[in-house]
């Protein structure tokens, strides 16, 4: 890319620019130790670090900026858009302009202090007062009016341009607190697609004259903008486009985001975010798999492997391996690959990825394959003694075998069968049905180190179940879990393995949103085959869709959906100590507001909850709960990402990083939160 900057835009990268990039990394790093390790891996050689680390980051930012508004690449699209606007420049003709046509309505929110956006009906967006005013003022500017002046009604604006598109806008209706607009947009060719076509023509060259670089001192701790209880936005200059249903893997040093859907199209693009250098790098589009969502992704320790999924019209049996060290893709071989599907399961064995089961929309599968990235080869999973085709089954990896059990074959055909797959021998061994639990879906499964314990779920009549079983693969035998003292029937419950017991709590007895819930819980000890009731003294109220984390000694549950009413959301919780069979209510003073679909991470000392929704309100608020002091500390909202649900959240060891998700729109923003 350096050569392209020099040849196309006459902007060769100078040593002074690279030195400034080194300074930026050292001053703004979110992980000083990681940055030191990166520099050490390069021998702490200023020249090597500047060329191998700083140059790629700087050049990618610069080339994106130059390409984005270069009329040599976007001028033809601009001219076509201008001609269409000239021919059909009246608001009643906007649908004939040839671009993508949209209508949307903006409403002023009742509470000007409420930062939550409310998508009440399709393309209707309710904005808090300050955001409403910003949108109206921006509309006035687009129409050439001064701030505070009236927006012309039923006029089409001049052609506008931003980083991603050309567009025109017209106001269809306007009232004191409501505006309905029409928009036509023409999307630019994204940088990754352009570079995949031209990049091969620019061969990197070794610099002839070396600049005398010096390594700046790396910050010993987070600088003031990144102090405790602060958000810092993940950069958006070359972040991936807004999306949903993407995958995200943590490599140990970076988050890799790939694929997904934005409501209209799917993606074959992605990005790598490195908190040490506080920068995004685009994943290469050369050799990338086709755009998709609902695919699976596994991290091998060196590569991310994606496979399968859907492109919106058909299922896929293609995939790819992405190597972040070389920013390169290698296609997964098609020879012997499993049939196209989604809703399959994928596990990583330490040497192979195993795909099994799933559906193509019309039929279920009992086939699969083992992919070995070292040889780029597929080996079909044996169909001898294989379980019956299914989906919504549970799958666990024992360390030597994959065990699948239960699930549905469709049309009410549910199972209490399963199988153990040994990838070394490529052989299935049917799990015994003698003493196996009854057929079910929506059950839970945990691995104890010796046994798989399944419990709860829904039977063939869609009634919840309070039974289960322990499966020992060494003896191929089932033992029923005792029903004496067992918790009441349920699904949507949470289970945690403490190391000695399985803890069951919460859930629903019917109704997928927790409209009716069980009022008890239990601890199951497989050694004694006995249940111990979970004390309900001081226990949180009945709920489902809550979050639960295990601290090592306690289970902390919080939030979720309560019983009786569909919109009965909760902001309460509790800590359960199985050693003493006691609950301690989580303090409600300073707790986040009621919500579901939030995320929760455990830092080692605190639980951080963030985001989520209540009815149609979305949040960018959260809280840090310290179990030792039973106190909440609100997460700072200064520079916090915008409200959202269905985002991804990971704990890096020092920070929580959130990215993507949706409200009424799909998002490509995120943030790093340092508690």
TrEMBL record:
InterPro entries: Kelch-typ_b-propeller, Kelch_1. Transmembrane segments: none annotated. Keywords: Kelch repeat, Repeat. This is Uncharacterized protein. It comes from Candidatus Jettenia ecosi.
